[in-house]
Amino acid sequence: MGATQSLYLAGGNAYSAVPGCGAPGCVPPDGGGIAPVSIALTPGTGRVLTFSSVLGTMSFCPGNTCVTSNPDGPAPPLISTGLNSSGAISGISAGTAGFLGGVFLGAGLPASAPASLDFNTIGTEFLSLNPVLGQLFFIGDGSTAASVTQQFFVPDGATTLYLGIADGFSFWGDPGAYDDNEGAYRASYTVQSTVPEPSTFLLMAVGAVAVFALRRRRA
């Protein structure tokens, strides 16, 4: 995925405010970016998203200072994120910026933007996360500093996962400022269900009956 792919354009969402780059000579909508990567999800419940690999670098120029970022973003306090919601997509806050992010959507956009997640409070070392539809979330490289794979629980009703960048002028305020971004991230992911199939339940039930019958004969 490329550095100009905006999470705020997921599912055909429209910006609440016309985006611009916030720099002299930039005329809106030059900084609006393009649609993020979309990944169709198999319907189900108890789905868990994990990432086995996220690699690459991106370059951003908030203000007059360019920053090269890995998928987790530069280490704080070099730069941080404090973006507003826009349209039906939430905002997001974090102690880093330029990170790989995601958002789940269903068949349509939410009626309104959900609450924004604050990764200054949550941190980026979480073991699992439960985002709701339309709620931007931090992915980074998909693992903790100790190389533990992080789990992202897919909300019921989600039909698509979008991967992209949450950006704005200096990564604050309304989203935009995608026109001066460069680079790309490459991600390998898996979506698995933790809910057994009906056939598995049936086998478990048959096994329980067989054990009970065996014990009864021995008695």
From TrEMBL:
Record-given protein name: Ice-binding protein C-terminal domain-containing protein
Q: Which domain of life is it from?
A: Bacteria
Q: Which InterPro entries does this one have? A: Ice-binding_C
NCBIfam families reported in the protein's UniProt record: PEP_CTERM
Domain Ice-binding protein C-terminal: start-end pairs: 194-217
Tell me what organism the protein belongs to: Gemmatimonas aurantiaca (strain DSM 14586 / JCM 11422 / NBRC 100505 / T-27)
